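Q: What would this chain look like folded?
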Amino acid sequence: MKKLNSKFLALIATLTTIVAASVATSACSWFTYQPEEPKCLRDE
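A: My prediction, written as C-alpha cells:
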C-alpha cells in the first residue's frame, strides 16, 4: 500500500509540474506581442 501511495503522489507531482510549465510558457507568449504605443501616450 505504501508503494502504491508513493507512486500515486509521484504521478500527481509530475502532472502538476507539466501543467505549471505549460501555463508559464503560454503566459510568456502573451508578453512577446507589444502593440505600438499611441502618440497621445508618448512622453516627448
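Residues 4 and 10 are 10 Å apart (CA to CA).
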